[in-house]
Fold this protein.
Amino acid sequence: MLKVENLSVRYMQRFSPPVLAVDRVNFQVEEGEMVGLVGESGSGKSTLGLAIMKLVSPSGKIVGGRILLNGRDLVPLSEKEMRFVRGREISMVFQDPMTSLDPLMRIGDHLIETILTHEKISKKEAKERAIKLLQDVGISPDRFYDYPHQMSGGMRQRVMIALALALNPKLVIADEPTTALDVIVQDQIIDLFKNLRNQFRVAIVMISHDLALELEATEKMAVMYGGWIMEFSRSVDIAKDPLHPYTKALLKAIPNIELNDQKLISIPGHPPDLSNPPKGCRFHPRCPYAEDLCREKEPPVHVIDGRYVKCWLFGSDRR
Ligand code: SF4
């Protein structure tokens, strides 16, 4: 249902060169699928999520590629046209519900307003839908008149998910939806996403820096680094047999409580400065397998058993 082709997003900066935060990325999401976008801060994952909604900040711009939603390219659409797409076809859940919810508005009124802004139905019908939405996300209808500050962080995030589902979109982009929550509530929110996906066949793009959480929650995963997708494949394959050196390094950095003497191996160095990225492979300054070719030429994307990996270690086209 969603096919992102060669998408690039550039940010202009006043005193430094432009930043190509997302650089020619490709991935796809099928109906009812949960797909992860994972990577360190600055990898481009949130920019990619915002670009799919066409909500990149004013200093950013989509400078190439296509975003095909059920075959229709969103890139050439005007802001007016996108207002019909957002909410109805794609919606977004952000990390911090407190910055998205109006503290002076009751959560029931939030839902009713969202529904009535887009649909010509009576207030009574909108209220019934709002109560049903709250129940769908596990909130009792007697919290309908609560203000956001009367709810816990997990409940507020459930309200955000209800708002995202209010107009029955087919795709929800969730940007770090559990980062501000404790681990127990994180699990509950992930379970909620899974249930909603099964119940409504809604596809979910889950953006997170937390690889362990993504492995648990998603069916497929795109691992991002320096604005590139380094690996895209089934999450179960990534867990068992990661191909890209960056994915391997991320996996080694996940703590495992079953191993008493596990040593966590951090990735040396820092993510690249995208206003001046390293030549060749952007991961080469941190990669234990880097060789001369990696420092000179950008690696191509290889397809191996349906998996995509952007690295010189694969394929037979090393020159
Ligand atoms: Fe490492 Fe080279 Fe592969 Fe980049 S292309 S990840 S530097 S082996």
